Amino acid sequence: MVVRGLSLSLMWSALLGVLLSLLLSAPAFAISQLNARLDKNPVMLGESVLLEVTADSRLPASSINFRVLDNNFTVMVPSVNQSTRVINGDASHSTTWTVTLLPKASGNFTIPAFSIDNVSSEPLTIEILPVQQGSGTLRDVFLQSKLSSNELMVQQMVYYDVTIYFSGDIQRGSLSEPQLDDALIQQVGQDKEGSELIDGERYRSITRRYAITPQRSGEFTIAPPTFSGDVIDRESARQSYFARSRTIVREAEALPITVQAQPAGFKGDWLVAGLVTLNEEWQPEQAQLVQGEPVTRIITLSAVDVAANQLPELTIELPDGFRVYQEQPQVKGAERAGRLVAQQVITSAIIANTPGEFTLPEVKISWWNSQTNRLEQTILPSRKVQVQPNPQRPNTPLISNEPAKSFIESAPLPQPDSGWGWNYTSWLLLVGWLLSVALLIWRQPKITRQQAGTGPGAEQSSGQKFNSKALKAACRTHNKAAARQQLLLWARHHKIMSQGSLSALSQQIGPGAFSNQLQQLNAALYSDSAAHWQGDALLQAWSDYQQGNNQPVKNDALAPLYPE
Q1: Is residue 543 pLDDT above 90, yes or no?
Q2: 72 in a domain, yes or no?
C-alpha cells in the first residue's frame, strides 16, 4: 500500500508539472495595465536616460513602437523581458521594454503615451538641462566633438574630433562612429590619451579623430558618436571595498555643416586638398641621355588632406622618338601629424630612339585649395633633354617629324661615290646569289632523304626546341645571337611562321612594341658593334605580347623590367 500511494503521488506531481508548464507557455494577450517611467529626471544634455514601459501581460516584442521619439531623442535598440509568477496557483504575467534615450537638445519635452489594445500609459514630461547648468556629479563621463571646418566644398575632407572625458574608472567601453549620409568616414591614426582641468576638476580624456568626406552638396547635420560602457559606482566604492559598476551611455552634440558644390565650368578631375606637389626623379641621374639606353623616370604626386582613392590619374606625354614602358601606378596613404597624406608614384622606363634635343612636356594638375578657398594648379615644368648618338650604333637616323620607318628604310646601305665601285659590288652580289642557288640544289636530295620539313616538325627533327628560360637568360645577359635563336624557335613553336628572319617575324606579328624590339635586335645583330644592346625591353615586350594573345608562359613569371 505504501508503494502504491507513492506511485499515485508521483503521478499527480508529474501531472501538476505538465499543467503548470502549459500554463506558463500559453500566450497571454489580455492586458489591463500599461505603465511608463524614467530612471531620472531632469537629465543633462549628453547624458542618457532609461525609459521603462511595463504591461501586465505577455506580449510580442513589437507591440510598442519607440520611433515616435526620434525627433527629440536618439533611440537605442530596446531590450524586452517577459516574466511569469505563480502564487497559490494564480499566475501573473508581465512584459517590460527598456530603452535608452539620448536627448538631442536642451529644454522640456513630452514622452507621449503608449497604447496596446486600447490600454494606454500616462505621458511623461522630461527636462533636459544644458551642460553648464548641471552639477558635477552628473559629469562623471561626458563627450565633446568639434570640426576642423563647418563650411567646405564637395569631396573636401574635414576632420572630426570626439573626446571622452571621465573622472572615474571605466571598466569597459565602446564608441560608435559619427554618421553622415553620402559621405566617406574613416578613422585617422590612433586614439590619444591626456588630461584636462574642467570646472575645477581633473578629467582624463581619450580623443579619436575621423576624416569625413561629403559626396554631395547641401546643408547637413553630423549624427554624433555614442559611448556606452561600465563605470565604477562612486557611492558603492565609498561604502564597500567591493564596488559595483553601472552601465552608462553618453552622446556628443550634433554638429551642422554646409557643403558647397564645385565651381561651375570646372573641367577635369575634381580634387580638394590642403597641398598638392609634383616631383620627378631620374635613375640614373644624368644630364644627357644616350640613344638606345634605358633610363627610369619616377613622377610622384603628393596631396595633403586627401584619401588615396581620391587621387586622379596623371596624363604623361612624350615626344616622338621615345619609347616608354610604364609600370602600374603605386598608390598609398598615410597619417602625418593627425592629417591624411596620399601619394601616387608612377615609374616608367624610357628609351630614346633618336639623337638630338627634345622637350618633355609639362605635367599639370588643377585642384581646389581648401586653405585659401580658391582654384590652383601644380605644374611639373617641361624639361629639355639631349640624346647623344650611341657610338656603337653607326648610321643613326636623324631627327624627323615623319613617321618611323622600318630598319631597312631608316638605315640604307652606304652609296659609294664611284660608279665602278657600285658595279663591282653588284657583280659580287650576283655571284654570291648564284652560288647560294647551286648550294641549295645540291642539298635538296639530302634534305628530302632526311625528311627535314620546314614546318613545326623541323624543330623536333633538329633537336632544338623553344625554351622560355633560355630566352629570358639571353635577354638578361644581352646575348643577341641566343635571343634571335630562341625567338625564331618560339615563332615555329606557336606556328606563327615556319621559317624566316626577325624582320619577317616582326611583319607577321604586326605593329607594336614587340615588333619594334625585334627590329632593334635585328639592327644590333648586323651593326659593327652592339655591345650596348639591352635585352630587358625586348623581354618586357615579348611578355606583354604573350599576355595580350593569351599564349601561356610555361616557366616562371617575368621578372621586373629593372630588377633591384
Answers
A1: no
A2: yes
